[in-house]
Amino acid sequence: MKMAMFDTHAYDRTAFEAANAAFGHAITFFDLRLTEDTAPLARGHDCVCCFVADRLNADALEALHRDGVRLVALRCAGYNNVDLVTAARLGLPVVRVPEYSPHAVAEHAVGLVLALNRKIHRAYARVREWNFSLDGLVGFDLYGKTVGIVGTGRIGLATARIFRGFGCRVLAFDLHPALDAARALELEYVELPTLFSESDVISLHVPLTPATYHMIDAAALASMKPGVFLINTGRGALIDSSALIQALKRGSIGAAGLDVYEEEEGIFFEDLSNRVLQDDVLARLLTFPNVVVTSHQAFLTREALGNIATTTLENVSAFERGLPLMNQVRAEDVLRPSAPA
Questions:
Q1: Residues 194, 171: contact at Cβ < 8 Å?
Q2: Which of 58, 209, 325, 332 sits in a 20 to 30 Å window from 201, CA-based?
Q3: How much is the pTM?
Q4: In angstroms, what CA-CA distances link 334 with 208, 239, 338?
Q5: Domains of the chain by range and CATH?
Q6: How confident is residue 331, by pLDDT bands cut at 50, 70 and 90?
């Protein structure tokens, strides 16, 4: 099939070109993000391959459909950037990569906790200026602390497994508890208010849906244990960023590790080092010494990139051959509770 792949970087091209040797699809790589304005670039292609920053709203999907595109292949797990209702109306199947490497994201989440707790980002900046003082760099032992995992899909369970290795007590919340895994890992499923009030660290691993939008709002933040570390490697809009800033200013939140941000589109994945950052909320977050922001890189390992490419190309091949689309996401998935990330 002829594939138009949008929002690509060097690491995407390397992974897809290597994986495609076994499939033989004709891939055209575009640096631009897919929007209604760039959709005409896909003319003459059977399929578009998209990532989290591409905007597949009704106008974009209708433009793709007019130009003969027959499949939308997401190379990510999330699908909140796709108008699934319009896609269904147009008869455009949407497939995704539900799993690529839960270990990649889980390890990054734990890495954010370690960096914030032991002030590694601040220590690194100090010693580069020959400042070897340890004042202000005191952390705490993770051993014996309580960690709350919100969402116990593959990534959430991988994160829980790592924290159990540190000797942490792990609480969990999920609409669909993984009871067998909970027994094996000695997790304790609790309601969200209990998880918020008892956890020293909270890590978010749920997809973005209407039900989870701003699930961490001012009320949720106020109910959390004072000094809690809040980690988000899921989707940015799980957290109300303005409410988080107020909690950080009050000192009720001990630290925040954010690999995602609710208004990251047009910022993350880009080099803006020679420009003035126009997003005042993100700029304010970056001023806090107890906040670490990474630009949606939790997935970025060789293993994950290889798995993303292979699964995406398998999805495209299944469509080409008329086989069942095992990784298809449908309009009703927007309305019903989603499986965790």
A1: yes
A2: 209
A3: 0.89
A4: 10, 19, 8
A5: 2-100+302-335 (3.40.50.720), 102-293 (3.40.50.720)
A6: confident
